[in-house]
Design goal:
With about 500 residues, the chain is mainly alpha-helical. The protein is built from 21 helices and no strands.
Length: about 500
């Protein structure tokens, strides 16, 4: 939770110094490229493949454990160094991709240079992920969980310390990214040394366990690659729309991810172990009951969140991102709010996907989620091109929502193929109807309350903050009151779930 709050603070700092200027666009696009490779070589594909093999060797062949760990560390070091060198060398080719009438030469130069600087981040964050995997396999989760906090603190510190020393403040942010990656690695390294890791200059690409890890990485690379290509193409289209488009989408998406991280991911963490246990015992009725319960819970949370984000988008963004003497101005607020309404529409289907996809993983089915991701990627790219000329940055946000909706439908049918009929029409659709009515009632409450307090006319944070937060709290209570009147039984179970 601390990490997610600091992540929001990090975006607030970026908004203050960069707003939705061309420098912000350059940084957003540039940082997305190292992040693409980070997902491949660090969190995701690499860790998901490495941790199971490391744990297996630790239990069955401990004498070879640290020889395997050292060898794989060197393989990772070699390939990430190669990616870094090639990335720095070929970054100038970006000018042939992003140069256009809506993106100036100054923006192109900044994007290329920022990309080159931040490619170094891939090296250190990959090594940090390696350390994190080892610590997690020994049950030492706290240190690894704290590293995102360190990254955000370093990033924020560099922004305040060095932004005034560069003509383009984005270079201070790039410095924060690189130093943040280095600090994460150095923070975790002593922990694995205490466990027995020692660096030795040996590299064997044919070592049995290292080969097993690399083979396991292939499906993960494909899955993660589809998702990252999706983001890259969307960013490429966004940057062609003019100054501020890609930055506004980034700020908007950060809010959506914050809501998902606080509520949906937390619920998934509690529910998903049940899926795996039931899959092993082939207790399909239990799986269906748990899955339908998870659907009801995410519906109960995501519907009112959608209403609140869509209707209160301007005052929320005003409170979070607009500061005195900051670069995030009225135009930034307008284009970010415009994107947010289209992102917020997709909150429910994103939550639906994030609950459904791991259920298939519980059945060790990696192919269907991958196929669904590929279909979603194609649909997203097609709709980005089709909608952006008419809706601008909102078209890209809407394309993302539509593609995830299609992905969710495919995944639900895949689940049905695993466990049989889910009984959605009888047991779930009436529940959605009641939540929809409660959400409409909450909207009416917000509409009249916001009008009464002149919420949209308030700009001073000392006045806006208590009024906005008070209205949100009151709207939540009103929503749950209506749910109680409509006899939504899941509220009682929801309270028990939250208490865990």
């Amino acid at each position: 939770m601390v990490s997610r709050i600091l992540g929001l603070v990090r975006e607030q700092v970026r908004a203050h110094f960069l707003g939705t200027t061309i420098y912000s666009d350059a940084f957003t696009f540039a940082f997305a490229i190292p992040n693409l490779f980070r997902r491949l070589t660090a969190e995701g594909a690499m860790t998901n493949a490495y941790i199971p093999i490391f744990s297996e060797v630790k239990e069955k062949d401990f004498e070879k454990l640290w020889l395997f760990a050292t060898n794989f560390f060197n393989i990772l070091l070699f390939f990430t160094s190669l990616i870094t060198v090639l990335g720095v060398a070929f970054s100038p080719a970006l000018r042939f991709i992003i140069l256009g009438e809506n993106f100036s030469e100054e923006g192109v130069v900044a994007t290329v240079e920022l990309t080159q600087y931040m490619f170094v981040y891939i090296l250190f964050i990959s090594l940090a992920a390696f350390c994190q995997g080892i610590l997690n396999s020994y049950g030492q989760f706290n240190k690894a969980a704290f590293t995102p906090v360190l990254f955000n603190l370093v990033f924020i510190g560099c922004a305040f310390l060095f932004s005034d020393r560069f003509s383009n403040p984005a270079y201070a942010f790039a410095l924060g990214v690189v130093l943040g990656g280095i600090v994460q690695f150095l923070f975790l390294l002593p922990g694995i040394r205490k466990l027995g890791f020692r660096f030795k200059a040996r590299l064997n690409l044919k070592e049995e366990n290292s080969v097993r890890v690399m083979k396991l990485m292939v499906p993960g690379l494909l899955g993660v690659g589809v998702y990252q290509i999706n983001i890259f193409v969307a960013n490429l289209i966004a940057i062609s729309l003019g100054e501020g488009a890609i930055s506004s989408l980034s700020y908007s998406n950060r809010l959506i991810e914050l809501v998902l991280g606080v509520f949906i991911v937390s619920i998934s963490t509690v529910l998903l172990p049940k899926f795996s246990a039931s899959a092993v015992s082939e207790n399909y009725e239990k799986i269906k009951d748990d899955y339908l319960f998870s659907l009801r819970i995410i519906t109960l949370m995501s519907f009112p969140a959608m209403v609140g984000l869509i209707y209160l988008k301007e005052p929320i963004l005003n409170l979070l991102f607009v500061f005195q003497n900051g670069t995030f101005d009225a135009h930034s607020l307008e284009i970010t709010a415009y994107a947010l309404q289209f992102h917020a529409i997709g909150l429910y289907v994103i939550a639906l996907t994030r609950v459904t996809q791991p259920l298939l993983f519980a059945f060790k089915d990696m192919k269907l989620p991958l196929y669904a991701g590929i279909v979603a990627m194609v649909i997203n790219i097609v709709f980005c091109f089709a909608l952006s000329p008419y809706l601008g940055n909102g078209g890209i946000a809407l394309a993302n929502t539509l593609s995830i909706a299609v992905q969710a439908v495919i995944l639900i049918f895949a689940v049905k193929g695993k466990v049989g009929s889910l009984g959605l029409v009888k047991s779930y659709f009436p529940f959605i109807a009641r939540i929809f009515l409660a959400s409409v009632a909450m909207f009416c409450f917000l509409y009249y309350s916001a009008s009464y307090f002149n919420l949209f006319e308030l700009h001073e944070k000392i006045v806006l903050a208590p009024v906005l937060l008070g209205l949100i709290f009151a709207a939540i209570l009103f929503f749950f009151l209506i749910c109680a009147l409509l006899r939504v039984e899941e509220m009682k179970l929801f309270k028990k779930l939250i208490s865990r």
